[in-house]
Amino acid sequence: MSTSPQLTSPNILLVEGPNDKHVIKALLQNRDFTLLLPEEQEGQDSQPKGATGIEALLKALPRRLKQDDTKTLGIVVDADLNVENRWKSVCTRLNQVGYTNLPKSPPVEGFILEAPDPFLPRFGAWLMPNNQDIGTTEDFIRLLIPATDALSSHADRILTEIEALEIQRYPANDRGKAFINTWLAWQKDPELRIGQAITAKVLEKDAPIAASFTNWLRKLFLTTG
């Protein structure tokens, strides 16, 4: 029986937080390759201690890119409220280290760039949800909800109603999180987390966006040139 290739310390995927990690691990479960995230690697941390989120990830990115033992480095970040600004922030860090000729916007299939010299790693980036639209990992997850689901429209309606009354307490850029957590709370197990919902097949791990994302991971980490 063949074993799945496992990526170790020369190959690093940086994510904004633990929720992203659980989603990625669930999407890769039972596929023909596995991915070892930095915090699961000996001597590696996905973020500096005490730091989380996009700012910490981007601040650490130039240092990560210059680590001698890194062969391939990928990042998964939220586009949030402005895809163009997020992409510019990523490109600014890449320029600082010596990556040039970067596209003006991220490719829809995910960004992969060969190392500009032997001392820098191959680099890849995926902007949640789909490299084109504003949003977060939770908006990506929404695209995994089955088309026949009867609850999603009701979750949207509830959020719209409380927003019309101006009684919601979440900021505009967290609407996707409010939606998916509302939707999950109405499942058979109301304590189900996103990663668990994928594993339990409440969400469709083979949805088109999931296939695109895992194909990007495969091309980034398992192919060269």
Describe the overall structure.
- The protein has 225 residues and is of the alpha/beta class.
- The chain has helices at 18-28, 53-65, 83-97, 137-142, 152-164, 175-185, 194-199, 208-222; strands at 11-15, 72-78, 111-113, 122-128.
- A four-stranded mixed sheet has the order 1-2-4-3, with helices on both faces.
- A hairpin with an 8-residue loop joins strand 3 (111-113) and strand 4 (122-128).
- Helix 2 (53-65) runs parallel beside helix 3 and helix 5 (152-164) crosses helix 6 (175-185).
- The chain starts with 10 loop residues before the first strand and ends with a helix.
What labels would you give this structure?
alpha/beta, globular, 225 residues
Provide a brief overview of the structure.
The chain has 225 residues and is of the alpha/beta class. The protein has helices at residues 18-28, 53-65, 83-97, 137-142, 152-164, 175-185, 194-199, 208-222, and strands at residues 11-15, 72-78, 111-113, 122-128.
Which residues form runs of ≥5 with pLDDT under 50?
A: 40-51
Roughly how much helix do the residues carry, as a percent range?
40-55%
Query: Mean pLDDT, rounded to whole units?
Result: 87
Please provide the count of β strands. Answer: 4
Largest sheet descriptor: 4 strands, mixed
Whole-number radius of gyration? 18 Å
N- to C-terminal distance: 29 Å
Write the element-wise H/E pattern from the N-terminal end onward. EHHEHEEHHHHH
Write the layout of secondary structure elements.
Elements: E1 11-15, H1 18-28, H2 53-65, E2 72-78, H3 83-97, E3 111-113, E4 122-128, H4 137-142, H5 152-164, H6 175-185, H7 194-199, H8 208-222
Parallel strand pairs: 1-2, 2-4
Antiparallel strand pairs: 3-4
